Amino acid sequence: MTTDPECIFCKIVAGDLPAEKIHEDDRTIAFMDVNPGTRGHALVIPKNHTKDLLEIDPDELAAVTRSAQTVSRRAMERLEADGINLLNCCGSEAWQTVFHFHIHVVPRYVDDPLQLPWIPAPGEPDEIAQTAKLLRD
Fold this sequence. Notes:
Structural class: alpha+beta
GO molecular function: methyltransferase activity
CATH topology: HIT family, subunit A
Strand order of the largest sheet: 1-2-3-5-4
Keywords: Methyltransferase, Transferase
Helix content: 25-40%
Pfam families: HIT
CATH superfamily: HIT-like
Protein name: HIT family protein
Strand content: 15-25%
CATH architecture: 2-Layer Sandwich
Shape: globular
Number of strands: 5
Enzyme class: transferase
Low-confidence stretches: none
Mean pLDDT: 96
CATH class: Alpha Beta
């Protein structure tokens, strides 16, 4: 497996940093975003370190997309989301802040105030943990 010792997402994959993991398979992992735009906002990443959309192997991209679909279905069913945004940011000017490919799964609700781009702000850890319980396998 390809890793970057400085990458926070690689550290999450390795178990060196904590995360509220909600889905995992042999190629991907999904966990709650600590700066959520809405309730249930999660990130889906490949376990192999890849910088961005332009560098990810097509098979890895397909695996991440399948996992994002799984997480999206759970959010619709278990959180009663009204819709889902999938968002990938590729490059600093496109708001990419962690240079390990990832897809944001952002549940949307009729009355949510989110307007893109949102300005990330720390979420309530207990609420993130409780929501993670609803989204786990």
